[in-house]
Design goal:
The protein is of the alpha/beta class and 489 residues long. Helices cover 52% and strands 14% of the residues.
């Protein structure tokens, strides 16, 4: 570069007009500089001096771009993220989340590169994507400063004004490049947002339908302890999203199934906004109806980093948790009295560690050829044969720990509690069935056309092509019972 020559076209323009054009083009280059940094700093200069800015490649402009790059790295990645944002790491979870996003972004970068084949257009696209994320992070960080760190609101406002004003300038500059490749992240963002909105809207409507159509306890009590059907040996695990009450699909089960299990457990699996849930706080157990009904509710809580494995002996842990709840309830004088519908919905946290004590004895049967033919069972010979074949073909089923529960020989135990524990143990030995509703969500006839398209087309398509609950919850197929039901929302 010839430093004496000056920028091309300078002599042809008045001085004021020259600086006005230079300032405008420099402002437009903000988005290119910041967006292209996410791809590679090596292409920043090439992208910055593309188009009309190529006429201003003098020494001062080159150093100005270098200064812009330096202060961008200093203010945003270093000062904002490394020093401030990463302080709210949630026990290291921010770092792991950023690593996951980096892996995803790497694959996306290669695909975008294939489409554009031009670093300038890539910089424009990444400029809008990066700056949108940056400014949203600034707003969310301001909320964390106020509500999580509980700092003075003035500190949060200073953080928001300082970094928000810088990033707003970058974002406004990037938005001027929408027609030059910047439309790609906007289109992708709209598609992803539409998919998430449809899924959330449909799932929310289904949950509200269950919530508004719960089965009243008075109607259940009117059926009697047998619920108006034949109670057969075994445990029936009924999956539901409700943490209180009996879902409407239960009446659908009772209507379509001629018999039901002797012990019923309404199971709700919830994800809570913490990384991990300690084992002693994972299970919440309560009772539905009087003792003679043998109906329980269990809420199992997982953190967003807890892994639900299929070899965790979930059935054994569940039975042990219910047994501990029965013992805890017997020790509570107010709970062990006659049934009161006002106490419906009470739950107790059950500790599952060994130091918490065990009301039932456990004998390991893994690798033993011990027969349990003396125990009542609702399974026919053909079903047992199918289960044996399933366990041979499924490696995860063979790894499950086989145990046999036994009642302790204690004369001091209340006879009513002992009978309830005996029913629970015999039901576990008879077998466990997982009962789920295969729901179909449809819009009402009176719904608008937009709602019909969202529910009948969009949400239905997502439900059919997403992983089913039985797979995500690692439910063995040999023990799964699904009953179809249509939800009109």
């Amino acid at each position: 570069m010839d430093a004496e020559a000056g920028p091309a076209g300078t002599e042809q323009l008045p001085r004021r007009q020259h600086y006005k054009n230079l300032l405008l083009l420099a402002y437009q280059s903000f988005g290119v500089v910041y967006g292209d940094l996410s791809t590679s700093p090596l292409y920043v200069y090439k992208s910055t001096f593309s188009g009309r800015l190529g006429q201003y490649q003098d020494e001062q402009t080159v150093f100005g771009v270098l200064s812009l790059i330096f202060w961008t790295f200093t203010l945003v990645p270093l000062l904002k993220y490394v020093i401030i944002v990463l302080s709210a790491d949630d026990n290291g979870e921010v770092l792991s989340s950023m690593s996951g996003l980096q892996v995803r972004a790497t694959g996306l970068q290669e695909r975008v590169t294939v489409v554009f084949r031009d670093t300038t257009l890539i910089g424009n696209a990444y400029g809008i994507a990066c700056m949108t994320v940056m400014i949203v992070t600034t707003f969310l960080m301001a909320l964390i400063i106020i509500f999580v760190w509980q700092k003075n609101i003035l500190f949060a406002l200073l953080f928001l004004l300082f970094f928000g004003s810088i990033e707003a300038v970058y974002l406004s500059s990037s938005l001027m490049k929408v027609h030059q490749g910047g439309w790609v992240p906007l289109v992708l963002g709209f598609i992803f947002m539409s998919v998430m909105f449809i899924w959330h809207y449909g799932s929310r409507k289904k949950y509200l339908f269950d919530l508004q159509n719960k089965v009243s306890m008075r109607s259940i009590l009117s059926l009697g302890p047998n619920l108006g059907i034949v109670r057969v040996p075994g445990i029936g695990l009924i999956y539901t999203e409700l943490v209180t009450g009996v879902p409407a699909i239960f009446t659908h089960f009772v209507t379509n199934l001629p018999a039901f299990h002797e012990v019923l457990v309404f199971l709700c699996v919830k994800s809570v906004p913490v990384p991990y849930v300690p084992p002693d706080e994972r299970y919440l157990v309560g009772r539905i109806g009087p003792r003679a009904y043998r109906m329980y509710r269990c809420i199992v809580r997982y953190g967003y980093k807890d892994v639900q494995r299929d070899d965790e002996n979930f059935e054994n842990m569940l039975v042990m948790s219910i047994a501990k709840f029965i013992m805890m309830e017997a020790e509570d004088v107010s709970s062990s009295a006659s049934y009161d519908i006002a106490n419906e919905g009470r739950m107790a946290v059950i500790r599952t560690t060994e130091d918490a004590g065990t009301p039932l004895g456990m004998r390991d049967l893994s690798g033993l050829a011990e027969s349990i033919s003396t125990t009542r069972s609702s399974k026919s010979e053909s079903l047992r044969s199918l289960q044996s074949s399933y366990e041979q073909e499924s490696p995860s089923a063979g790894r499950r720990r086989r145990v046999r529960f036994e009642l302790p020989n204690e004369d001091t135990m209340d006879q009513q509690v002992k009978d309830e524990l005996l029913v629970l143990v015999e039901a576990k030995h008879a077998g466990v069935a997982y009962i789920m509703g295969h729901s179909y969500i449809k819009a009402r006839r009176s719904s608008s056309y937009v709602k019909k398209i969202v529910i009948d087309v969009g949400y239905s398509f997502l439900r059919k092509n997403c992983r089913g609950p039985s797979v995500s919850l690692h439910i063995p197929h040999i023990s799964l019972i699904e009953v179809g039901m249509i939800y009109y929302v």
